[in-house]
DNA sequence: GTCTATAACAAGATAGAC
DNA sequence: GTCTATCTTGTTATAGAC
């Protein structure tokens, strides 16, 4: 019970304040326990962070796997749209997750920055490649313009990351409204 | 002399470690002075940060103003490309500036987060509007598809932010190579 | 402007009692 | 598992000498 609450609340603190900025005392306080009690669950702040990161990675990977399966039967262009919609919606619907992930990618904890980034890239590589494969397929089917598929896959992620970034900065602004325009522009750009 | 060095070195520390993560002792140490000497120049860590932020804002605004003037005589589509190239190049050529700006927008110092974000939006609004005006012009000239200009301006910034984000994460990767593909996809998407 | 010295405080971490 | 109490370190900040 406390263990679940701990991860949930710590996730929010890491997301809002970053690894270095999050205070174990504040986290414990919000749970209703004292700071030393956290050490009954994890040997260090970093181990707590690592456990949460692992959970989030599993969750993110499940999302991609399911999205790839559920969109399999769609026409190539619609499949690409569906994937973008699912992944962007995953983050748009959860500001905490979104902030946690952006911080994880861009400013990981200094002491483990190298290994964290490496593991994230390893995690993401299959999805970039599968995206490139889908684009390749679209080119063969004469739905998309001839182009380097991997570059377009990077452009896909570029757009996704830009959306997340602006959704965090312009919190009041409803980016769900802009998203369709942003996406349709991209799709028109690659379509034949 | 020390004053210039102070801002220069502090900028790098803020960029690499964030406001909360940067240590005045480390900054002083790198300059070759002692920590308390910083307080001869600024009354607090936040005032030092504010002075640097102000400098960077001036620098960024000059870039936009100059870019808008120097591109004025170009055809609308080429002008848009030039603007994207100038602004993305500004950050791509200086990782420190890039990291500082991303942190400033996404995770500003907590104590002043509200007012900083507000001033950044105020700073950026004219450029979004001028971009929308240029796109409007392109639509009138039948160079671009009919579309809501402001939404496309947002898409422009979305792409720019996404590029910056990925350039920070994938440091080894040469995104200068991908950038032309990313941009040309966007341009094809809005062109008639 | 810069220094030494020090105050005041918050953080992560640990020991030992219950 | 949880607590109180304590240790260590690192931070902002200030006072006062040069």
- CATH topology call of chain A: Tetracycline Repressor, domain 2
Distance between the termini of chain A: 54 Å
Number of helices of chain A: 9
Q: Report the helical percentage of chain A.
A: over 70%
**Beta strand count of chain A:** 0
Which H/E pattern describes the elements of chain A? HHHHHHHHH
Report the uncertain regions of chain A.
none
Text of the CATH class of chain A: Mainly Alpha
Proportion of β residues of chain A? under 5%
Task: Indicate the structural class of chain A.
Answer: mainly alpha
Q: What would CATH call the architecture of chain A?
A: Orthogonal Bundle
Q: Tell me the number of structural domains of chain A.
A: 1
CATH superfamily of chain A: Tetracycline Repressor, domain 2
Structure description:
- The structure is a homodimer of 192-residue chains.
- The first copy, chain A, is mostly helical.
- Helices cover 79% and strands 0% of the residues of chain A.
- Chain A has helices spanning 2-21, 24-31, 35-38, 45-70, 76-92, 95-106, 113-140, 149-169, 175-190.
- In chain A, helix 7 (113-140) packs across helix 8 (149-169).
- The first copy, chain A, is elongated, with a radius of gyration of 19 Å.
- The model of chain A has no long low-confidence stretch (mean pLDDT 93).
